Amino acid sequence: MDKDELLTRFQLRALSRYHSSPLTPAKLRAAAVLIALEPGLQGPELILTQRPKHLKAHPGQVSFPGGKPEAEDQNLIMTALREAEEEIGLAPDNVEIIGQLPNHPTFTGFEITPVLGWVKSPFEAKIDPAEVQELFRVPLAFLLEEENRHTAMFERRGHFYPVTFIPYRRHFIWGATAAIIDMLCRQLR
């Protein structure tokens, strides 16, 4: 799949259904993430990060670059772009915004806005060690294969809810990140 096919698939196919966690709190805090795709040797690759283990929130988990909005952010797209620049050194002017996926509420109290972007030119990652332990890429073709995305039911506070997970090499992608990847893949299928 090249960039043009990705754009066509993203723009023409609406998600048929979207499930949120039954444990989503009533009041949610806004956040935005950048689903950054870049050309790879065998098609588009998704940029992901692993959070450092010393962090209080979600230590060691795989995530997209992103976070909470700040006063200077004009909108949540700008939040996602600013966070990507801060965390991995991806300049906002090097990203072509393709669009947004539906917001993803979490049981940890966030409403995540996933912003899909295409990295225009190769960039040298500048990782902020306070927020990112590692940057890695996953081929979109791998993620699009349904057998590589798994869902299991887990119980939390007496309620059962689906949790998506994606094992990839030595990484274990799960939770909101995996759910957003699954949503993107369903959109592109």
UniProtKB/TrEMBL annotation:
One Pfam family from the record: NUDIX
Start and end residues of each Nudix hydrolase domain: 27-166
Keyword Transferase: no
Entry keywords, A to Z: Hydrolase, Magnesium, Manganese, Metal-binding
The protein's name: CoA pyrophosphatase
Any one GO molecular function term: metal ion binding
CDD domains on file: NUDIX_CoAse_Nudt7
Cofactor: Mn(2+); Mg(2+)
InterPro entries xref list: CoAse (IPR045121), NUDIX_hydrolase-like_dom_sf (IPR015797), NUDIX_hydrolase_dom (IPR000086)
